[in-house]
């Protein structure tokens, strides 16, 4: 991000606080370390529910005592579910869209660029043969994802395109999708007596 001493709100982002945060991280990099988490509970069939209640960051635990977030996930009847929520791969697209959008808006605010529109359209291709174990040659996840951004604001087309490319490079979720992140799954050690 370009560092300036902007003291105004741009795109709903307090640019002054954004630069204060950058300065604080430059002085103490441990402030930048965050741990996000959730708990997930199986309900029935393909229906399961995630609850987001707290996270660690900036050297403290942030609890959502008054509000917390609940995400129901299910599958469409075509995929043997009851359609009680978006399916997990649709949530992945929603997370990707939200992260790229937020990243773009923050970087625009840091540059003093006022935006009037940031809309996204996403779609991705999955072959169920991977999920169902019918082919080892077909991966279970998305084979490809496409994201089109409609961005308008007080900037040239080149500046807006630069923001899109910057968001692609700096979005944490885009990074996970494009480059992968190590995942460790384990069975909890519980007394089952």
Write the layout of secondary structure elements.
Layout (H helix, E strand, L loop, with lengths): L8 E2 L2 E2 H13 L6 E3 L2 E6 L2 E6 L1 E4 L2 E4 L5 E5 L14 H23 L4 E11 L2 H4 L12 E10 L3 H14 L1 H8 L14
Helix pairs in contact: 2-4, 2-5
Distance between the termini: 55 Å
Can you write the helix and strand succession as a string? EEHEEEEEEHEHEHH
Strand tally: 10
Helix content: 25-40%
Q: How much beta, percentage-wise? A: 25-35%
Secondary structure tally, helices: 5
Q: From the alpha-carbon coordinates, what is the Rg to the nearest angstrom?
A: 20 Å
Task: List low-confidence stretches.
Answer: 1-6
Placed side by side, the strands forming the largest sheet appear as 3-6-7
The largest sheet, given as strand count, sense and whether it forms a barrel, is: 3 strands, antiparallel
Mean pLDDT: 92
**Structural class of the helix and strand makeup?**
alpha+beta
Overall spatial form = globular
């Amino acid at each position: 991000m370009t560092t300036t001493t902007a003291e105004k709100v741009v795109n709903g982002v307090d640019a002054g606080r954004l630069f204060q945060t950058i300065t604080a991280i430059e002085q103490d990099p441990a402030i930048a370390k965050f741990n996000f988490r959730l708990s997930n509970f199986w309900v029935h069939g393909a229906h399961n529910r995630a609850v987001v209640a707290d996270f660690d960051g900036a050297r403290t635990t942030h609890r959502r005592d008054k509000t917390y977030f609940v995400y129901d996930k299910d599958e469409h009847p075509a995929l043997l579910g009851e359609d009680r929520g978006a399916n997990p791969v649709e949530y992945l697209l929603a997370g990707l869209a939200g992260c790229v959008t937020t990243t773009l808006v923050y970087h625009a605010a840091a540059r003093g660029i006022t935006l009037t529109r940031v809309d996204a359209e996403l779609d991705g291709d999955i072959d169920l043969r991977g999920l169902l174990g019918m082919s080892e040659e077909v991966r279970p996840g998305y084979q490809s994802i496409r994201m089109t951004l409609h961005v308008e604001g007080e900037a040239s087309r080149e500046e807006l395109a630069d923001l899109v490319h910057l968001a692609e490079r700096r979005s944490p979720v885009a990074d996970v999708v494009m480059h992968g992140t190590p995942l460790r799954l384990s069975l909890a050690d519980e007394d089952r007596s």
